[in-house]
Amino acid sequence: MKIEKNHLHHLAEQHGSLLKAADLTASGLSFKQIRRLVACGDLEKLGKGIYRLPGQPYDERLEITHRIPAGVFCLYSACFLHELSDFVPSEQHLAVPKKSRYVLPAYPPVKLYYWEEMPYQLGIMDYPLEGGSIRVYDPEKTVCDLFRLRAKTGEVAKEALKNYLLRPERNLAKLHEYARRLRVEKALAHYLNVLL
Fold first, then answer.
1. Which runs of consecutive H residues, i.e. helices, occur in the chain?
2. What is the per-residue pLDDT for 49?
3. Residue 26 contacts by C-beta under 8 Å, 6 or more apart in sequence?
C-alpha cells in the first residue's frame, strides 16, 4: 500500500491535483488497486473517472476541464478570472466547438456555449491555478465576446471594457483586431469614444 501511495504522489506531480482513471491505469494501477485506494481514503473519487489525492489543492474549474476537455472558460467566468468585473457567476461559463456533445455534471454547475470555429479558436490562453491550469479567453477576447453577446451581458460588458481600459498592460491593437474579426467594431467604438 505504501508503494501505491508513493506512486500516487508521483502521478500528482506529473498530472496535477486531479487524476483521470486513464492516468492511473496507464501508470500500472489496476481498477482493483484504485478501488482499494479509494476505500482506505488514500484517493478520493470526485466523479466518473476523476480522482484526487486528499489534501491536494483543488479547484472545481480543474475538474470541469477534465470533464469538458475542449471547453474554454468564457464570458462571465473569463471576466471574473481576469478581474474585469465584480460580478460572480453562479455557474461556470464555457465555450465548446459547435458540434460538441457533453453530458454536464450535476455539480459544479456549468453553462455551455456552442460556438463556430473562428470565435471558439480566437484568443485562447492557459491560465494557471494551484494544481494545474485551465484554458480561458484572454482579456481582449473576453471584452469582445461580452460585446458580441451584449443583449445578454449588458452592463457587465460596459464594466469589463471600462476596467480593461484602466490596465497599464492593455493592448488596444489586439482589442481592435478581435473586434474587427468578431464584427463588434461599431459597438465597441461607440463606448471607446466615450471612455477614452
1. 2-15, 21-26, 31-39, 60-67, 75-81, 117-121, 139-148, 150-165, 172-181, 185-195
2. 75
3. none
